[in-house]
């Protein structure tokens, strides 16, 4: 939130915000009037009451509203553990696009940041993953899925509109019935007035059974391949099942949840974030409500399913916003989420004023009495361009004058305890891992409308001002994805510590991801995955007690994983030679499951020595990697979409590029090389992924450089790619050892950095001859932007194999040298950023041929594909434990008497369908229209393809 500067108030407010409360004169009434329109609502502003919810179960409850189930070693499933299991976290990313005379953000562009966007980026990309992995139910009071595609499928859709998908009921007819309660119905778009989509339709019911006998399957028409938040809705009632089973089917398998349908009905309930492939395919993307429940005589409701956030769909008099819903303010989210207009149109004020109170009022409307929950509002501050640091607020009767005067209601709710726990964690962690002198501006109080206990009186609430977005050094921090992740982890940790103190329990924090992860072929059709325990303590999490290895056939949708039994290795066997398998490893303890390790790509061997090692060193994130996107009247502020900065998945492109060659390969993160977990001398070639280098960071650690140099000396071929390898090995800041490695080992020299490289053309008579020129992708056509890269030259004895269309001469892009059976190749740009994507595989094939790396023969008949060595189930067992994550479990269909188990071998089929080398491409932010699959021109009825019929059912 922004504190407005005026000449008459500057000195007084500087004293107040600097913490000198004793010197602060009475708070000026003219400032108060101005600020009431900017976030500080008057205490006497008349507001319409938040209504009670029909059918909601009241009173303290001990059943989590949503709990994720994990496969166990015995083939059964059990609820995943986590310190926040059974807890709800209501998240407010603050401001957003709001309609007045026209659509505008509530805050301007300040030093390249717009608070309406940057707070959302901090929550959506960094805080939410920590909360979900700790077991929390995340309830956004503003949309948190930034993807601009969206599809909504209603229970009444059947198969009538292929642009939305289809809904199928399976089981005996007597199990199903129509609910008398209202549910989602597709509205006419755009939404206007106080239309409530959750009052336009009905919902279907199933009688519960101890063992599943019926299901309702929602098969959405996925608009474009990519990651989507999955939301469900149902009608709540005291007679609903407390453990309704809901299954999300995706290319990685299936993920199971149990949902207490006695609470949080009639709105969107978030299950998690999943990768789906474009199209309508039950085996690759579906959400299934089953009638399995241990509550006898209960019913299960199935109303609607939503994937993605989508574009703005509300018209307040001047058309829709043309922006992603995740960038709009809370007022519009509340309407699409089913809240009555008394929640989001609470006063006679404008949309801006309504938005301020909507954030807390929507949380109060959704929250079930007795539900353990907290409200977290995420902001940044501004004042005079000088003040720095973090301050946190709870509700009080005072203006934001630097004092601490919490009301008795604030104290009774525990808001002060929550604020102190979170604030203390943020200050401690930022000082420990980012800036030792980071300013602690303390916990304070103010009559913020977002925290007003008259609007929300059922849970503790706090507002954190992470930093000042008008102060250059603080802005540098806010633009840094590493800082954002650090703060997000600290906020999550503070929430855990608050609940632990309230319940008298020990604090249990998520572990960090495993280190030094390595996957290597150890026999015919066999891969051994190993890793080192993560660091712990201090600003980090608690020690791991066990680990899970997750597998994927395509590199983006992973299965539920297999437990290693506490060991730091796991053997996967029965794999198909020649196939590429993608892996991630997570650490587990009582706090939950960690973020994943970087994705590894492994080419399964038919036996014998694996000739190639693929190493990823692309683990750096920095503000220079942000996207600068253009918005109306805002210029080009920074955005932090982690998927297009560095989500550590870029070995997927390398694996896909290597797949056509048939050459088996191992893979590891560079930490495995640094810690001597793998010997480079065991391979004939090392392909090193440097990624997009970062200013101020070393291109190679000293241990990595020494290992590469020793490998080259022993006759190993080296292929290195990355944006700034040349600069940091041969530029002015390079050490003599780095310069010697670049010149003597890689046979290259650094010329300059170029911001415009143009097309890259291979030499006509070298190992890359015959290839068509290629270009470097942007974030829409490749994994990330490559705004600049190195120009290199060949040293004596080496040759220049490709050049940029650059004014420099020589504008070298690729340098190589071959000595006997060994070759070195330096590619001065990230190989994964080559466009078109088919050129990546062609470049790799040429290099392998030049260096004499050939695919070994596969024995006649191959090796059967299947499970893991610890006795886990084969693919298609329905518990996500198979080797290839095919999603086969969704083929099961009840027939009313028992279960028909249809095991479909989709592993190899899925591989054939996957677009090799082409990762998902999702439209973020910059689009002004919905996907053609989920939007389009209005029909004669005034409905877009996903709006459908709006007739109510009883």
Features:
25% strand; 11-stranded mixed β-sheet; Aminopeptidase; 19% helix; Jelly Rolls; disordered N terminus; alpha+beta; 7-stranded antiparallel β-sheet; disordered C terminus; 954 residues; Rossmann fold
What's the number of helices? 17
| Uncertain regions spanning at least 5 consecutive residues | 1-43, 861-954
Number of strands: 48
Query: Beta-sheet strand percentage?
Result: 15-25%
Give me the oligomer status: single chain
Overall shape: it is: globular
Sequence-ordered SSE layout with sheet pairings:
Layout: H1 10-17, H2 29-36, E1 66-71, E2 77-79, E3 88-92, E4 98-99, E5 103-104, E6 109-110, E7 113-114, H3 115-133, E8 137-140, E9 151-154, E10 165-170, E11 176-178, E12 204-207, E13 215-220, E14 226-233, E15 244-250, E16 253-259, E17 269-276, E18 286-290, E19 299-302, E20 304-307, H4 330-336, H5 341-344, H6 351-366, E21 373-381, E22 390-395, H7 408-413, H8 415-433, E23 440-446, E24 461-468, H9 472-478, H10 481-503, E25 515-523, E26 526-532, E27 546-552, E28 562-563, E29 569-572, E30 580-589, E31 592-593, E32 600-603, E33 612-616, E34 627-628, E35 638-639, H11 651-658, E36 665-669, H12 670-674, E37 685-689, H13 702-713, E38 717-721, H14 725-730, H15 736-745, E39 748-754, E40 760-762, E41 775-776, E42 789-794, E43 799-804, E44 812-819, E45 822-827, E46 834-835, H16 837-850, E47 893-894, E48 899-900, H17 907-913
Parallel strand pairs: 3-8, 3-21, 21-24, 22-23, 33-36, 33-37, 37-38, 38-45
Antiparallel strand pairs: 1-2, 1-16, 4-5, 6-7, 9-20, 10-13, 11-12, 12-19, 13-18, 14-17, 14-20, 15-16, 15-18, 22-24, 25-26, 25-36, 26-29, 27-28, 27-30, 30-31, 30-32, 34-35, 39-42, 40-43, 41-46, 43-44, 44-45, 47-48
Helix pairs in contact: 3-10, 4-6, 8-10, 11-16
